[in-house]
Amino acid sequence: MSNGRSMSAEAHDAPETTTFVQDFLALIKIGIVNSNLITVFTGLWLAFQFSDRHFLQHLDILVYTLVGSALIIAGSAAMNNYIDTDIDPLMASKKSRPTVTGRFKPSAVLALAVSFIVLGEIFLFSASVSAGVLGIAGTLAYVVLYSMWSKRRHVGNTIVGSISGAIPPLIGWAAVEPTLGAGAWALFLIMFIWQPPHFYALAMKRTEEYRAANIPMLPVVKGFHRTKKSMLAWVLMLFPLPFLLPELGIGFFILATLLNLGWLFLAIRGFKVEDDLKWAKSMFIYSLNYMTILFVAMIIFAVFV
């Protein structure tokens, strides 16, 4: 890690173009925190609705779960930045990270990451023991299984990383119903299967960066055509999953199926396009909209069905 940190020291001499708040939010990957909180809240909300309990009578659980989840996700993201200090300077899209520019010292990043994770776990265990245990599982899956192990060694690193990304809705559900029902595992599967086509699209856009950093992402190792085949397969696997949530009704099934058909059409179109990177960008944008619309729809349909 010495090479990465020396580059960070050199970058520290460059004029600052971002504020402290902007750098802090970049350090904890605020976009990832926010998107994961949507899935945490969805799990929490569906557990309340399916168990005929009113969230206004359990505001403490709501606060403990959302704050705790935000803290462990932010802490894990900061830990990822700490771990990747040696490779981030090699990637153009990562060179503005505060761990690369030298805005935050590695020791400070490590201390913040650990503090956030510990504090977040205190909140989650206050909600329920199951939520706290799942929080630990998610953190270990992201920090150890993905960031420290599979990311740099295995072409299946994205699939391994999908485990941690699928745990947030389980945390939300477990805060209300610690035993976890079938609906909780349906949310887990949706998030787990959604992530590979989402992150493969991003990896295609950054193939040369990952190649320079020697990270064995699927587009780097197997090429674009093989990556497109994999993305198509993962999108197809999404089709039956909405039907694992029968409580949400026919309206939700129709909406989810339309979203799946749209993504399937876009995935198939990828085999005929001339500009692979432009197509990858459209796949990435669609995946973000897909996840947001689907999970917000779950929250709405759970109320009105």
Automatic annotation (TrEMBL):
Transmembrane segments: 24-49, 61-83, 104-125, 131-149, 156-176, 182-203, 231-246, 283-304
Tagged with keyword Chloroplast: no
E.C. no: 2.5.1.141
Subcellular localization, as worded in the UniProt entry: Cell membrane; Membrane
Coarse class of the protein's main subcellular location: membrane
UniProt xrefs under Pfam families: UbiA (PF01040)
InterPro entries named among the record's database cross-references: Protohaem_IX_farnesylTrfase, UbiA_prenyltransferase, UbiA_sf
Any GO MF annotation of the entry: protoheme IX farnesyltransferase activity
Membrane topology listed for this record: Multi-pass membrane protein
Pathway: Porphyrin-containing compound metabolism; heme O biosynthesis; heme O from protoheme: step 1/1
Catalytic activity line of the entry: heme b + (2E,6E)-farnesyl diphosphate + H2O = Fe(II)-heme o + diphosphate
PANTHER family linked to this entry: PROTOHEME IX FARNESYLTRANSFERASE, MITOCHONDRIAL
Quaternary structure, from the entry: Interacts with CtaA.
Family statement drawn from the similarity comment of this UniProt entry: Belongs to the UbiA prenyltransferase family. Protoheme IX farnesyltransferase subfamily.
Note from the entry: Carbon 2 of the heme B porphyrin ring is defined according to the Fischer nomenclature.
Function according to Swiss-Prot or TrEMBL: Converts heme B (protoheme IX) to heme O by substitution of the vinyl group on carbon 2 of heme B porphyrin ring with a hydroxyethyl farnesyl side group.
Protein name according to UniProt: Protoheme IX farnesyltransferase
Source species of the chain: Planomicrobium okeanokoites (Planococcus okeanokoites)
Organism classification: Bacteria, Bacillati, Bacillota, Bacilli, Bacillales
